[in-house]
Amino acid sequence: MINADPHELRKFSALAHRWWDPTAEFKPLHQLNPLRLDWINSYTQLRGKRILDVGCGGGILAESMAQLGAQVKGIDLASDALSAAELHRLDSGVMLEYEEVSAEALALREPGAYDAVTCMEMLEHVPDPGSIVSACAKLVKVGGWVFFSTLNRNLKSYLFAVIAAEYIAQMLPRGTHDYARFIRPAELSSYARAAGLHLHAFKGVSYAPMSQHFTLSDDTSINYMLACVRV
């Protein structure tokens, strides 16, 4: 069985035509992207590296990594989102590749093929996040980096990431996130260690509503990222 929720795939496919509109539903991803791109690049210089973006959606991160000189492949199971990514690639002229395939299937086909793997804002949307973490570990070379970002599961994250972001500020469409699928850092750590990854650094992401800017933080109580190395 494919590790994907059909409802989640339909939800993101329905918004595919607005993926590259920086004022529409994916505005937070456009605002967040420079921060996460710089964070990834600070650990593994992207230029000349072979990079896989798992759960690439419309390609915002994948395309920006390719613009820095990486050889990028983006994968996703939302076909309409991938179509939006491919159309934007053709329009921008950036060289990268997209494929509709699961991380688990690609791990069987291309084990150890990538210098780094990114999986950002995706784990909280799948039935079995541990399986995705394991696949990411298999796809990266020994000594290569794997980067995750997701949402913590606690009262604060529910209030800010769901109630405030979706219902009050309307930064995101209602129903974007299912709080029950949020992942505590201890849980993600367990998945990563079981997959043979060495945990290098956790980093929180904070949002300032007035300036509408994301910044790195030591506070991992809501949004957070994890950098790992395959051992």
What tags apply to this protein structure?
single chain; 231 residues; alpha/beta; Rossmann fold; metal ion binding; polyprenyldihydroxybenzoate methyltransferase activity; EC 2.1.1.64
Q: What would you say this structure looks like, in words?
A:
With 231 residues, the chain is α/β, with parallel strands linked by helices. It has one domain: Vaccinia Virus protein VP39 (Rossmann fold, 3-Layer(aba) Sandwich). Helix content is 39%, strand content 26%. It contains 8 helices and 8 strands, in the order H-H-E-H-E-H-E-H-E-H-E-H-H-E-E-E. It starts with 5 loop residues before the first helix and ends with a strand. It is an enzyme of class 2 (transferase).
How would you summarize the topology of this molecule?
Layout lengths: L5 H9 L12 H17 L6 E5 L5 H8 L3 E6 L2 H14 L4 E4 L2 H7 L4 E7 L8 H11 E12 L3 H14 L16 H10 L2 E12 L4 E5 L5 E8 L1
Parallel strand pairs: 1-2, 1-4, 2-3, 4-5
Antiparallel strand pairs: 5-8, 6-7, 6-8
Helix pairs in contact: 2-3, 5-6, 6-8
